[in-house]
Amino acid sequence: MRPIQKSQKLADVCYDIRGPVLEKAKQMEEEGQKIIKLNIGNLAVFNFGPPDEIVQDMILNMQGAAGYTDSKGMFAPRKAIMHYTQEKKIPGVTIDDIYIGNGASELIVMGMNALLNPGDEVLVPAPDYPLWTAAVSLSGGKPVHYICDESADWMPDIEDIKRKITANTKAIVVINPNNPTGALYPVDLLQKIVDIAREKQLIVFADEIYDKTLYDEAEHTSIASLADDVLFLTLNGISKNYRSCGYRAGWMVISGEKRHAKDYIEGLNMLASMRLCSNAPGQFAIQTALGGYQSIKDLVGSGGRLLKQRDLAHKLLTAIPGVTCVKPKAALYMFPKLDPAIYPIEDDQAFIQDLLVEQRVLLVQGTGFNWIAPDHFRVVFLPNTDDLTDAISRIARFLEGYRRRHGTGEFAPKHANE
Length: 418
Prior knowledge:
The protein is of the alpha/beta class. It has helices spanning 20-30, 52-60, 75-87, 103-113, 130-138, 158-163, 187-200, 262-274, 280-291, 296-300, 305-318, 348-359, 385-406, and strands at 36-37, 98-101, 121-126, 142-149, 155-156, 169-175, 203-207, 231-237, 250-256, 323-324, 333-334, 337-338, 361-362, 364-365, 377-380.
């Protein structure tokens, strides 16, 4: 039989959050082994449930959820999203500028599909949430990664952004709050990105899915609130702030300079119509979520579970020899660094798989987030404190064994005159 091969469009597409190491974990589970999964921000499995009122309102409205909705979404949730953009001080947003999708993920791909032609370039942060890079590649474009500087608390390197803009650059992606680093960008840095976008006529794609998951009384600024003469596509949803990942309810808001984007917007409308609509039950959750009690504040504020787990994870990880980590100001993740002198890793996917096999802890390697070197990994700090302590203790044991095998760190051989 002639082999059936995947499309060449997938040649440069990867999504290692659910990649080969996860397949190995599934195999181990089938063999009866228990795996501690710190690979994905799936809140429900760690007993972070959605607010009761969201669940109740979805149930009450389920009888009206069987039919197709408007291709952009129902009026009431889009109206609630419009009011939310007003709270975020994003100017000029109307109902017609709002698209509801099956999570923000669907809309990320839609936004790129409607925009890109072969050879078009999009600036994407390194590290990034890998769907952004994958969506650019799948849409025929070329992802160009600009560096976020770990020594500057993972802020985007403005000069690197400028160096990487070419005549083919169509857009820049800004993930704020950032996944995987937990960085939160200040207004002055966001303004610099806006200034570049204005000068180079770039579209700004703003991923703000964690805009309420903020620690230490930090505040989030929507980049689209800083200008009305640049085209912005802002993406958000209820997956993270409202612990409703499986409801698949996200939105995309177009704002700013829309007059010169009529043809692009027509393309977005075409793609929205082709998928008919996003799921109706999830849409019923949006208005209640945005208008109800914001229980996320209890989780991230003083004494909150997420805050405690962030602090514990950071303390335990940075106590391991050769491990450093910028403390996240937002989101559900941290992105520790392994000192290359102590951990001379060549293949970080193999390294993470070895950790899985030896200690039954599942992480994602840093290169899975398009980081430039095999010296980082992402940790999800969603397990309760006991399980988190157990998981990081296993990571510490694995790293101790690694140092011993490689003769680095405190296990390095001493010189005779020492």
